[in-house]
Amino acid sequence: MKRSSQIGLAAAGVVLVATVWSMTGEETQENVVYGSVSECLAAAQLSADQCETAFAQATAARLKDAPKFRSQVECEVQYGANGCNTANVGGAQYFIPALAGFMLARGLAGAQAQPLLPPTTATCPPGSRQPECQQARSSSSGSSGGSGGYVRSRAYSTTSGRGVTAAFAAGARGGSVATTSLSSRGGFGSTARSYSSHSSS
Amino acid sequence: MRRVAIAPRPDWTEQVERLGFAFHTIDGETYWDETAAYAFTLEEIERDIETPTEAIEQLCFAFIETALDHEETLTKLAIPAAHWDYIRESWRRGERNLYGRLDLAYDGRGPAKLLEYNADTPTALFESSVVQWDWLEQAMARGAIPRGSDQFNSLHERLIAAFGGLRTPSPYRLHLTCVQGSAEDKGTVDYLMDCAVQAGLDARFTYIEEIGLLSDGRFCDGANQPIETLFKLYPWEWMFRESYGEALAGSRCQFVEPPWKALLSNKGLLACLWEMEPGHPNLLPAFFEGDPRCATLSPRRVRKPLYSREGANVTLMERDRIVDSDDGPYGAEGHVLQDAALNLFSADGNYAVLGSWLVASQPCGLCVREDASPITRNTSRFLPHYIEP
Q1: Which of B108, B116, B146 is nearest to B309 (CA)?
Q2: pLDDT tens-digit map of B318-355
Q3: How many CA atoms lie within 13 A of B359 on its CB side?
Q4: Which of A167, B80, B82, B220 could form a disulfide with A150 if both were Cys (CB 3.0 to 4.6 A apart)?
């Protein structure tokens, strides 16, 4: 037979395109990310009080905003093995994604720290060899600064499910932290616009 | 090879739409046309289409091997010099390709002749892979064609298998992209995304206009997720020249199709292959415009811009008279002249061009497009085919 024996159209996969992908605003704002209070202290960009406060804010926001699951399995399907722990919310026991770090808007005094959760399995599928997933899945994570350039990156997710990839640079103070930021957008597509024609054949 | 008039399914629009085929009618004109079908013998398919397709692909690989180190050829193909090393590296790393479509002139008599190679951004894929396959099943079920008919079409299973093998380790994360505002391009990418998901990949769509550049040099999608592997239904010759062109080499992104396909999706290929293998049974004589050997071409010849899509700016000439031409925005980079094919199938006032599909460089499918003129354009109609039992 010269033709396929069967054709399956994973309709759900097609629907996924339309429902999941929406334009999000550009991220021009610089954020700093810390994996823990000790990392925050080691970076020496904030005072000890500020680090403690940020951590407490992130802890509280996580309990309030993170997705809550009735079983460990349900939670780990989304956040990966060892990505969840138990929490008591309103007297009931839940499994919620672990606090993997916290993010602060740089230069915004008084801004609330945002909790960072483990990357979702959509971002870092089990067995992924992407560098940011390696870091994220490993147990952790002293702030082992290297020298020069980006020494490592880590994937996280926000409580609303958005992915965040933080690149940890070895800065002057050994371990300062910055998210990879968007430099620009829209550098492809100009020819199609100018031709207002098909780009395929 | 015969053109067989067949009654369309009374409910054909519902039938094709249930498959998710959104562009069966384009700008009010019929695109999916099942008022007729093309019938082939198995020998015609295997001897005249499948085997030559494989042979031409091998010839193309031999061409790339020599062209990459031949600056004169790269210049003639109008490949920007700034990207030569980038293309060379993609070839030497062995970056794999997903698919392509050879357009062939063939009328059932004598060898098929190569008209062009859509190596970079071919469409007509979903209708080839799924819609005509479904038509065949129903045509046999309702007795419109003989039971036991077949079709040259294992595209679907080949695509799924090929996605799994494009990169190791697999499964991997794959982004897919095309321009906004083209239902046909989006439909093609949606279908490929479906195949990628079935291959177990973490597949995500982003429009090409949404792509951004991260501070570490990587491209990212509309949600700022880094792009590691990108299927792009967008031509290399445009990407090279756009503002992110200079970011390509540092992006650590594996592109599908790979950059080396830029040498094949170029009408200059036709002149280069003829130079390598003059007299090859599946090639038509062709030279770059300005080459004195153009004088040796037949008076009936076709002038094609190096970069053009869907017949745009192609001119059919009889001596110096223009017989047929298509307007369009292409041609600034130069042209090739090629003998007009003498074996273009025509019947009932229609011309047919065969599209012979390759997936991972293996021939595995056929589509037939018809037009009322000898130049196949984006207004051509797609007709199903079958292999007679």
Answers
A1: B116
A2: 876 777 666 666 667 899 999 999 999 998 889 999 99
A3: 22
A4: A167
Task: Tell me the mean pLDDT in the region B17-30.
Answer: 89
Interfacial A residues in 163-192 facing B (CB < 8 Å): 163, 165, 167, 180-192
Residue to mutate among B115, B216, B229, B257, with most A CBs inside 10 A, is B216
Mutate to test the interface with B, among A4, A120, A134, A156 (most CBs of B within 10 A): A4
Check residue B330 and give its pLDDT: 62
Query: Which residue from B151, B157, B234 is spatially nearest to B195, judged by alpha carbons?
Result: B157
pTM: 0.72
Split at pLDDT 50, 70, 90, the class of B257 is very high
Quote the tokens at residue B128: 């080839």
Tokens representing residue A15 in the block: 């629907």
The radius of gyration computed from the CA coordinates of chain A, to the nearest angstrom, equals: 20
- pLDDT on residue A104: 78
Q: Summarize pLDDT for A6-52 with one digit per residue, the tens.
A: 777 763 232 212 122 222 333 334 567 888 888 888 777 778 888 88
What is the predicted pLDDT for the residue at A17? 22
Contact present, B352 and B346 (Cβ < 8 Å) = yes
The interface predicted TM-score (ipTM) is 0.85
Chain A touched by B331 (CB under 8 Å): no
Cis bond upstream, residue A141 (ω within 30)? yes
Q: How far is CA B204 from the centre of its chain?
A: 23
Residues 15-34 of B with CB under 8 A from A: 19-20
Considering CB atoms only, which of A22, A188, A201 is closest to B208?
Answer: A188
Q: Does the CB of A139 have a partner CB in chain B at under 8 Å?
A: no
Looking at CA atoms only, how far is residue A196 from chain B in angstroms? 10
Q: What is the number of other CB atoms lying within 10 angstroms of the CB of residue B22?
A: 14
Q: Where are the alpha helices (DSSP H) in B142-200?
A: 155-165, 183-198
Q: Do A198 and B233 touch (CB under 8 A)?
A: no
- Distance, CA of B347 to CA of B160 (rounded, Å): 36
